[in-house]
From TrEMBL:
This is Stf0 family sulfotransferase. It comes from Mesobacterium hydrothermale. Residues 143-262 form the Sulphotransferase Stf0 domain. Signal peptide: none annotated.
Length: 275
């Protein structure tokens, strides 16, 4: 699936000259494309009743935060299904056309039928603007509860470097082949991306606080160091894994290499020079 520029707004135009309220009120690119696909009326529910008896699990993420790793652990909990970027407009359009779906709520019914886990819970990945779309269109009301797992990286500069490298190489996970080896150093882009990641995480938190969605925060660094404790301490109380849950070896591996460290050091040196 396409990342960042299609999955959310681009790093150079996310928040320029906009306050938080205006930013939250502005539909993202996926919501805009889906409104063209379904029409304004087709985006919203026709009734207020519950459609499902199980919660909706949302992995709220910014790119390169470790959300695919968390999705692997959620799958291992055997309550929710495998979380994908099911709200990306290209994915929605493909499946809606194949299934003859003409309304977004009917698409959610399709997702529940096809991708729910062993205990019936549907898991999806969502950027902040997709999370806002779920609330704005009333889709969260189809479920008795929404449980948001907010995937964070404490080292946002390292995250931004990882994103800029992946943007160039097209290696979004360890399973993808590298298309281009030589990665140019673009400090301005790295700085913009890091700042935007910070604000995107703030917006995820504010959306949850404003709407009453339950949110659990997970740190990528701690998840890598001790998944049994850090992930287990979230999945078990969130009802997404049994009390004796223990993680298996994940299907994906860490990607960072020497080039990541070189770029991060160069950005820090640049920042020191202007202090």
């Amino acid at each position: 699936m396409k990342r960042f520029f299609s999955g959310s707004r681009g790093p150079l135009d996310l928040f320029q000259r906009k306050g938080l309220s205006e930013t939250l009120a502005t539909p993202g690119p996926h919501e805009t494309a889906l409104t063209r696909l379904f029409g304004a009326e087709g985006m919203r529910r026709r009734s207020d009743g519950l459609c499902f008896q199980t919660p909706l699990v949302v992995i709220a993420f910014t790119n390169r935060s470790g959300s695919n790793l968390l999705a692997d652990y959620v799958r291992q909990g055997k309550v929710a299904g495998p979380a994908g970027e099911f709200l990306n407009h290209d994915f929605v359009t493909k499946h809606a056309r194949e299934q003859g779906i003409t309304r977004l709520p009917d698409y959610m019914l399709y997702l529940q039928t096809r991708f729910a886990g062993p205990a019936g819970a549907l898991a999806i990945k969502a950027s902040w603007d997709q999370l806002a779309m779920l609330h704005r269109t009333g889709l969260t009301g189809m479920f008795p509860e929404v449980r948001v797992l907010h995937m964070l990286r404490q080292d946002v500069l390292a995250q931004a470097v990882s994103y800029v490298i992946a943007l160039h190489t097209k290696q979004w996970t360890s399973k993808h082949a590298v298309e281009q080896d030589e990665v140019p150093f673009k400090p301005d882009l790295i700085e913009h991306v890091a700042a935007d990641f910070h604000q995107a995480n703030l917006l995820i938190r504010l959306i949850c606080d404003a709407t009453g969605m339950r949110r659990w925060a997970l740190a990528y660094e701690q998840m890598c160091h001790d998944p049994a404790t850090h992930v287990g301490n979230v999945l078990v109380p969130a009802g997404l894994a049994p009390k004796d849950w223990a993680p298996d070896v994940p299907r994906i591996s860490k990607q960072a290499g020497p080039r990541n460290a070189e770029m991060q050091a160069a950005v820090l040196a640049r920042l020191r020079a202007v202090l």
